[in-house]
Specification:
By secondary structure, this protein is α+β, with helices and mostly antiparallel strands. It is built from 2 helices and 4 strands; from the N terminus they run βαβαββ. A 4-stranded mixed sheet has the order 1-2-4-3. β1, α1 and β2 form a beta-alpha-beta unit. The two termini are about 20 Å apart.
Length: about 100
């Protein structure tokens, strides 16, 4: 892992594809990556995910509901987060603050 610290870390597309991983394996990967990123982000970090509110889902993409994600965030990072879904895509962006 990186030793350098950053004010903010922004991850785009890191969690949109799960390929052959199961949903549970992808959730474990998400949590482990966010825990590592949290170590190098001094003020906060952001990432995007595929929404569950779509016309259809692809098996190779990682669709995660807001409530499941909120539970993960609160258990691991606290309640200082924002979920943004105000742009024209089938995904959403999450901002976690320290």
């Amino acid at each position: 892992m990186l030793k350098k610290k950053y004010d903010y870390v922004i991850m785009n597309g890191v969690f949109t594809e799960k390929r052959e991983l199961s949903q549970n394996e992808m959730i474990k990967y998400l949590v482990s990556m966010l825990l590592e990123v949290s170590k190098i982000a001094k003020k906060g970090f952001a990432f995007n995910l595929m929404s569950k509110i779509v016309d259809w889902e692809r098996d190779d993409l990682f669709h995660l509901s807001y409530d499941k994600l909120a539970k993960i965030i609160i258990e691991n990072f606290g309640r200082k987060f924002i979920i943004r879904n105000d742009y024209e895509m089938y995904e959403y962006t999450v901002y976690i603050y320290k």
